Amino acid sequence: MKQQENFGKDFHIFGADLLVKTISQIEEGVAPRKKQDGNFSLAPMLTKDMAKIDFERPINEIKNKIYGLNPIMGAYVVYNGKIIKIWQARVLDNNESSDILKIKITEDIKPGTILVSDSKIGLYIKAKGGVLKVLEIQAEKAKRMTPNDFLRGNNLEAGKIFE
Predict the structure, then answer these.
(1) Which of 46, 63, 128, 70 is nearest to 94 (CA)?
(2) CATH number for the domain running over 48-153
């Protein structure tokens, strides 16, 4: 036990010393630099169009888009011509969603369909390969909130499909 404590302490001191040395080198303009080789890629500039959720895409790709654009710009859906941002969501598999929602999720339900929209239960959306449970949402010109709070003041009709 004593050996582990000393290792942590020594490592902490080593890290602090290295940081001080590196900052000094940067200030003096003598810090070693290593040029990158040609094996890199540039990410495209983010645009509003990239942030729109396409429920025909695989559900994990949708989840990654939602988390990847948070907090920069947020992924969004369109409902009755209005933009609604989804800031956080969780993927449910079909078995889990059938248990929670008490409905059978079949492949003939079109991706983007609002399965449940209830201020007590929450907001669930069908996507390709599963169901998305929305955890944080934002209407146009409003603050972020839970779907339960959002649905107390906004009507998203179950059975409707996001545009």
Answers:
(1) 128
(2) 3.10.25.10
Nearest to 114 by CA among 58, 160, 46, 49: 160
pLDDT digits (tens, 9 = 90+) for 99-147: 666 666 767 889 999 998 999 989 999 998 889 999 999 999 899 999 9
Asked if residues 110 and 121 have their Cβ atoms less than 8 Å apart, the reply is: no
CB-based burial label for 96 (10 Å; 0-12, 13-18, 19+): middle
Q: Please enumerate in sequence order all residues whose Cβ is within 8 A of that of 24, keeping only pairs 6 or more positions apart, or say none.
A: none
Contacts 24+ apart (CB under 8 A), 123-126: 123/147, 123/150, 123/151, 123/156, 124/92, 124/97, 124/100, 125/55, 125/162, 126/55
Q: In what order do the strands lie in the sheet with 82-92?
A: 75-79, 82-92, 130-139, 122-127, 114-118
Domain residue ranges in the chain:
1-33, 48-153
The CA distances from residue 128 to 60, 67, 69, 71, 80, in Å, are 9, 18, 20, 25, 22
Q: What are the backbone dihedrals phi and psi of residue 26, each rounded to the nearest 5 degrees, phi first? A: -65, -45
